[in-house]
Design a protein that fits this description.
Helix content: 25-40%
Number of domains: 2
Structural class: alpha+beta
Order of helices and strands: HHHEEEEEHEEEEEHH
């Protein structure tokens, strides 16, 4: 089962059975996307919060030291990318959201916040201690020169879901075979959270246990309809 279809149909069924009146399917699809963006960005809020604590010496730094629950969700977006350096410049992937580490020829690059800090520390750079900074062109300048290969580990951007359909007798019917279809790009454990937060946007508040009961009833209804058809 596709997660976007499960989420979309559940929200549609609950929202349109509520006394607040019907909500257009296109509005629900937009609200789902907005909710997913909010949940995704909350990971980085948590990431920054924990790193700030680390900077104060309260906990160790790094993605590996985030609580297991957050780390598991973030790992869904972790990517390792390797390529050849061109003119001592590392080209960053277009889908990069958070940069975790950069290596050149198996040596980790120490990244500085700006060009000024980079220049100040150039005299300390060695072949086994490369340094760099991110410039305005979404790339990293590395020093010393002469490295051949780089590897970037990063967290990519979330892909926005797209519930695609065909119209049959005026009714939208789910069709995941279209070229622009995109399932929900999140850890499966977020399904309930996506539904609950989307429903809250239209004034419907459900707890997870209540949602589980509604979804079970909905699945039974769909199962019976399939048997009778």
């Amino acid at each position: 089962m596709y997660l976007i279809d499960l989420v979309y149909k559940t929200i549609l069924a609950i929202a349109n059975s509520d006394i607040r009146g019907n909500i257009k399917p296109s509005e629900i699809r937009l609200l789902i996307n907005t909710t997913i963006e909010e949940i995704y960005e909350s990971y980085f809020y948590e990431l920054n919060r924990i790193q700030n604590r680390g900077n104060k010496g309260l906990i160790e730094q790094g993605i590996g030291n985030i609580s297991d629950r957050i780390r598991e969700k973030l790992d869904h977006y972790k990517v390792e990318f390797s390529a050849t350096l061109q003119n001592d410049i590392i080209s960053l992937p277009k889908d990069l959201r958070y940069l975790e580490s950069v290596f050149v020829d198996n040596s980790e690059v120490e990244l500085f916040k700006n060009q000024s800090a980079f220049r100040i520390n150039k005299s300390f750079a060695r072949k086994l201690y490369p340094i760099g900074y991110k410039n305005s062109g979404n790339s990293i300048v590395v020093y010393p020169i002469g490295y051949k290969v780089y590897q970037v580990t990063y967290l990519r951007k979330v892909k926005m879901p797209n519930w695609t359909f065909v119209k049959v007798r005026g009714t939208e019917v789910f069709n995941p075979s279209t070229s622009d279809f995109q399932d929900i790009d999140m850890h499966q454990s977020e399904v309930y959270n996506i539904i609950i937060k989307t429903l809250q946007k239209v004034g419907i508040n459900l707890k997870e246990q209540e949602l589980q009961q509604v979804m079970a009833q909905q699945q039974n209804i769909e199962f019976n309809q399939e048997i009778q058809s």
